[in-house]
Every structure is written in C-alpha cells, then in structure tokens.
Write a structure and sequence with these properties.
single chain; 575 residues; mainly alpha; Transcription Regulator spoIIAA; 3 domains; four-stranded parallel sheet; two-stranded antiparallel ribbon; globular; disordered N terminus
Length: 575
C-alpha cells in the first residue's frame, strides 16, 4: 500500500528547542546555565516592578516571568529569546484592572492568548508588520512617559498623593504634593538610580539593577528605615508555589473585553517578533515567527491560572541573555527556574525591598524603551509622517493605547493610499527619455565579481520591508560591495527607510560597503528629508547604475576586505 504523507501545518511552528537539542553538548549547557542565572537575577526586580506598576501584586509579575518564560522557552521559535512581563504592557494592564478589575485582566490575557495561537497557527502573525514605524515610535514614546509618570509618587515618597489614571492629572497631583517629599525615600531612590547607571560602567558584567535592589533591601532591612516597601504595601511575597486557579469565564464579557484583548495580542506579537529579530541580529540565527506566536499565545493562556499578567518577548532581557553567553532556549529555561528558586527560598526578604528602588528601576526601563533618539529622524520626515507620529503619541498620553493604535492605523492607511496613488504617472516617451534610461539599464553593463546588485521593485512601504530582510538573510552570499538599485522603487516611507538603515548597518558590520543608485522623485526627496544621506554618505548615493559601478570600482581599488572569509577573494580579484 502506498504510503501517504500529510504535510501537517504544525511543522511550521516547530519549537526552536527541538532543533537545538539535536546537537546539544555539555559546553552549550555550561554557557546556558551561566546566562540563565544572570538574566534570571536581572528579571527579578523588573518582574516585581512591572507587577506593581500594572496595578497588581509584585508576585504576579514574578509568576508571569516564571511560567510565561518557561513556556515560551519550551515552545518558542527564537534561540535566545527571554519572555515575561514588559513595560509595554504596564499602561494597558493598569487600565484594564482599573476598568474591569483583576478578573477582567485575567480573561483579557487568556483571550489574547487564543488570538496569538490563532495568528501563529494560521501564519497570519506577520500581519503585525503592517504597523508603520511612526506609529510604533509614537506609542512607544507615550508608553515610556506614562510608565515614568506612575513612579514619581514612590520615588519621591509623596504623602497622601493620589495616583490618577490620566497622565496630566497624575502629573498635576505630583506637582501639588511635591512639598511632602520624603527625604529618605528620595535618597534611596536617587541612590538606586545612580547605582543602576554607574555599576555597569565599573563592572560591565554586573547588572546595576541587581546591585541597587540588594543595597536598597539591605539598608532598609538592617536599619529598619521608615520608608514604604513591598512589605508595608503588599505584606511581602508569598513563599512557595503559586496557587493554581482557573479564572471564571463569562461569555457576556467577550464583546466588552475584545478591544483590550486585541490590543494586548497585537502588542505582544509586535514586541515578541521585534525582540526575536533583535536576537537574530545578535546570533546570526533566523527565528520561526509562527512558533514564537504560538508559544506566546500558550504562555498568555497559562499565566492567568497563577494570577499572572500578559507575557511577551523582552528585548532588554534577551540582549542580556546574549551578552551573558546564551546558546539555546535552555538559558531561558534556567532563567525561569532561577526565579522559581528565589520565590521558594528568599521570598521573606522581599518585604524589605523599597518601592523607591523599584521606581528607579522603572525610570531606567522607561528611558531605555522610549526610543527617544528616533524622534529626531521622525521630525526630518514629511508632515504626514510627523502627523501620524504626533497624533499617536498624544493619544497614547491623553486617551489610551487602543485608541492611539486604531487612529494611528487609520491615518497610516490613508497615507499609504496617498503615496501609492502618487506612484502612478502618465507621460510620453521622448528621445530624451530613452537616452536618459540607458544609464539605468543593466543589459549592456559589466558587473564585476566584487559587486552584488539588489533591486527593489514597487512601493517600499510598511508591510513590505520584510522582503528585504528575507533577501539579505545570508550576507555570506554577497560580494564585498553591494549596490541597491532603486530605479523601480516607486515610493518609500519611514518604515522602509528604517529597513534600509538596518541593511546598511548589517553590511557595515560584515565588512561590506553599500551603494544606492537610481532613486526616483519621491524616494529621492524622502531620503533628503531624513538624515539618511549623512548616515550613508553623499558619495555613496548615485544617480544611476552606471555611476554606481564606477564608484564600486573606486572602492575596490582600496578595499581592505571584509574579514578573513573574503580576504583571499579580494586578493584574487585584484590579480
């Protein structure tokens, strides 16, 4: 009987751990063990701080990091991704808790988990790429400010100060009560902030947040400092395993909670895949988006059972994992087990942790996640792009993240239609047009062995930029000089520009040079509006492929090579 092979879709979301364990050795385990221990300790203050800032308990953040991080490590599609609670969720989670209570949050998280699993299983998760960069920057800036604003009360130790849910009301409350600042709380907070910044400069391998947490806890415990702590506000952290309790699900809540669930799912997908891309750039690996989204969905389905909050990939912890020597998802498993051991052994000490220290940790998180340097680039773009960014930013502060994303997406869609409409032209073919086109054609040009030519055909806008990443995934196949031909690229936006900048950085790190040529009117004008010309170099942006090949020949004459792998090739090319 003929054997039938059914190509079941589950292979499209096969966990990265399965592939890594096929060749796993003791050396990799030692590296993963040390990395996991390090990132586990880094995650401890962050998990507690995110829990408190989200309007729940500190242990809720830790339980989320333990269970969510473990599930994503077991089933995820990235090699060194570390998952848990993140700053991106703080504002929206706090809003859900304030409006629907803790039970509403647990249901929203599980609904988001179902959506994420569906996105991964169907392969629709890549739809998150249709969020333009100005929107991402806008609500990231807004979220960072909102997170920072929630921490002034604890950082300053303000007495009798409210902490309203609205940004401007919250800042007005801080201003009204600033005279009641507790000097001791402020000193602990400021000292913690200083340690977080100074320690990594003195000892780069030691996380500043861990030192700040240890010092602040020790001072408070030893000297019985009269400041607000986890113990005074929450009664401490329970020692032992969390209580498993499946939240009660009411069908009547589906429609009211669906907008919040969609926002959590989109944000989780966006941040997880972005973190996975960052991990790929560090490891040289390529993540499986479908597997990652299925794993994030399973994690968000599971964490509410232990009273946890939403889970997503954490870029900072993933980067720490890599810098600590992680090789496989085993390091993320060790990270979760490290937090579990802390809960089982050292939970009683948590009652001495000052809230001012955790506020300092979140100030640094807000600063790091804000992508403030991107604002300068946004302000150099067209008024339409600046408008999308500004509206998203203001709505994030004044309304909420759901409204900000919805309005931002609507504006981006209109902008997309406008830009695509500009790409259609009708004109007569003249002798001058034919003559000018000869410099752009490749048919009569000799492309030397030291040059690789790439081309972009059509609009290069949000939703299409991943095609450039896919085409350049393996840079080892590329020659020392890469020419990106833009003759047939009809339009570009901020997301496309960011993709070009990333390609330039990747090629530069590999020792290669990147040239651009043939940009049409809208792309050429857009590149001039940004700082892209200064970033690439005016001499490396050419009017046509003929000029680009001449520039490549000039570079080849003095080219020093792209590392050992190309040194011999370049020597042969010059012979």
């Amino acid at each position: 009987m003929r054997r039938l092979i059914w190509q079941i879709p589950e292979w499209s979301w096969r966990p990265k751990l399965v592939d890594c364990l096929k060749t796993y050795r003791r050396r990799e385990f030692r590296a993963d063990l040390m990395a996991g221990l390090t990132v586990g300790m880094v995650a401890l203050p962050l998990a507690m701080a995110f829990g408190i800032a989200s309007g729940v308990t500190p242990q809720a953040g830790i339980y989320t990091a333990i269970l969510g991080g473990l599930i994503v490590a077991l089933f995820g599609g990235s090699k060194i991704q570390v998952s848990g609670p993140t700053g991106a969720f703080v504002v929206i989670v706090a809003g859900i808790v304030a409006k629907h209570g803790l039970s509403g949050l647990l249901i929203v998280t599980m609904m988001a988990g179902v959506i994420l699993v569906g996105l991964g299983v169907t392969g629709l998760g890549t739809a998150v790429k249709y969020i333009p960069r100005p929107i991402v920057i806008g609500f990231t800036n807004g979220i960072a400010l909102l997170i920072a604003s929630t921490q002034f009360k604890d950082f300053l130790g303000l007495k009798n100060a409210e902490n309203p849910s609205e940004f401007f009301e919250r800042m007005a409350s801080v201003a009204r009560h600033v005279g009641s600042t507790d000097p001791l709380s402020f000193a602990i907070g400021a000292g913690s902030l200083a340690l977080i910044f100074v320690v990594p400069r003195i000892a780069p391998k030691i996380p500043g947040s861990i030192v700040a947490l240890a010092v602040g806890t020790a001072l408070t415990g030893i000297f019985s400092l009269p400041i607000e702590t986890i113990g005074s506000k929450f009664g401490g952290i329970p020692q032992g395993l969390p209580v498993f309790d499946i939240p009660e699900f009411k069908p009547s809540l589906i429609l009211p909670l669906m907008p919040a669930a969609l926002t959590v799912a989109i944000l989780a997908a966006l941040e997880s895949l972005l973190s996975a891309v960052v991990a790929d750039s560090m490891t040289g690996d390529r993540h499986n988006s479908n597997a990652e989204l299925v794993a994030q969905g399973l994690a968000n389905l599971a964490t509410p059972i232990v009273g946890g909050i939403p889970v997503t990939g954490a870029i900072a912890r993933t980067a720490t994992n890599f810098r600590s020597g992680a090789k496989t998802p085993v390091s993320a498993i060790v990270h979760s087990l490290t937090l579990l051991i802390v809960i089982l052994v050292a939970a009683p000490l948590a009652k001495f942790i000052p809230l001012a220290t955790l506020a300092a940790v979140l100030f640094v998180v807000a600063y790091n996640m804000g992508e403030w340097r991107e604002i300068g680039g946004i302000l150099r773009l067209s008024w339409a792009d600046k408008g999308v960014w500004m509206i998203t930013f203001i709505l994030t502060l004044m309304a909420d993240l759901t409204v900000a994303v919805e309005v931002g997406m609507a504006l981006a869609a209109l902008l997309y239609i406008h830009r695509v409409s500009q790409t259609t032209t009708v004109s007569a073919v003249t002798p001058e047009y034919i003559e000018a086109g000869k410099k752009h054609t490749l048919q009569d040009k000799h492309v030397p062995a030291y040059v690789t030519i790439l081309r972009i055909h059509g609009p290069f806008l949000f939703g299409t930029t991943d095609k450039l990443e896919e085409s350049t995934a393996n840079l080892k196949k590329f020659a020392p000089i890469v020419i990106l031909r833009l003759r047939n690229m009809t339009a570009i936006d901020a997301t496309g520009l960011h993709a070009l900048e990333q390609l330039s950085e990747r090629l530069k790190k590999s020792g290669r040079r990147l040239l651009f040529c043939g940009a049409r009117a809208q792309p050429a004008e857009f590149l001039k509006q940004s700082d892209f010309v200064e970033h690439i170099g005016k001499e490396n942006i050419l009017p046509h492929v003929e000029a680009a090949l001449r520039r490549a020949a000039e570079l080849a004459e003095g080219f020093s090579g792209v590392g050992e792998e190309f040194a011999e090739d370049m020597r042969k090319l010059r012979m």
